[in-house]
Amino acid sequence: MRREYQRGMHVVRAAWxxxxxxxxxxxxxxxxxxxxxxxxxxxxxxxxxxxxxVHFLTRTLRPLGLRCVGALVVDDRRExxxxxLHFATNHAGVVLVxxxxxxxxxxxxxxxxxxxxxxxxxxxxxAVAELERRxxxxxxxxxxxxxxxxxxxxRGSFFPNPHGTAVGLVxxxxxxxxxxxxxxxxxxxxxxxxxxxxxxxxRYGVRVPGATLTLRFVGVxxxxxxxxxxxxxxxxxxxxVTSLFExxxxxxxxxxxxxxxxxxxxxxxxxxxxxxxxxxxCYAEGETTLEEVVLRALRHGTARLTLAEVASGGxxxxxxxxxxxxxxxxxxxxxxxxxxxxxxxxxxxxxxxEVASEKRVQALAASAARHGGTRWAVVxxxxxxxxxxxxxxxxxxxxxxxxxxxxxxxxPSPAGRAGLVTAVLDQLRRWLQAP
Length: 435
What we know:
16 helices, 18 strands, 6-stranded mixed β-sheet, alpha/beta, 23% strand
């Protein structure tokens, strides 16, 4: 009885959605409805790490003419999840749910969506066959928690996951839909780009992304960039602007609906105008990272580099190592909790009692280069407090000299350390680009 009631309610909801869309447009073959995002995960609510899905999804879908009307973060609890689904489906035709599709007991997204939609699950033959191929294991020997991830809606479809084991799910509530995506960004983002976008185009006729220009900034705030563009740049009214801030880095993306030569040229001229006013802060265009910019400048100068870190705790080496050019430039890294211990690793001979000084990081840079067998070295020194502010000395040893700069260290937290790495890379970029 309860399931029949739920199905009846979804029929009523779907009918109201059709009616509302027809009244809004005057026709039944309407464009894509608005969408709502539900991000699942108790660890997000506990502050273990920040949500990145809402930024990515809204930034990716907006150029296609899709409008996000809201987003919620909920715990992995059935009652709270169901309440969020009721709220979301009352505000949007398409609901995107992230996370909770994995093999652990608290991964309840699949079953909760099935209950809410009144659509049973079945095991997908194709999904099971893919697990057999990936793990080189017959299906009868696959772990039950792995096979559980192969259950898909009887009414709807699913998205294969070449980067993980949990497939994406589509519960069909025509004309709307519940779309479930895996939680890890390395799985979710390719699935959205390669599978969800084509599905949206086929089902709702959303427009193909047009001309796009992304400018990447560092060392300047998001609000200052926005104000400069509004006050000094002539922005055509048809250009859609989106922005993303993360770890002291800011991306501004400019979209035009078409991709004809005129619009591509229009964005090129717009980018040149933005750079004219904010050029010193603009480190790249497109998908090029700050790490890649620094490594390419070093490689262009045929530099080989040794890293030595205290305040950044190895985060600088980890960031640079994520870029493809790292193997051609970075020869090694030394990490210690204090400058004194770092000096011991590098056989450096600092002045007794001298702590966190410019001369000390210069000496450490020379020792790091000698110990690493390179002519170039970067040292991130120890955090010290100056006039109530946490600061750190940075040193870059080159063939000709040792350059130094004192930077704001930020708070002793993962976010503060990420911000420090960005500040270090920005300063290295500026030194390397200087004539």
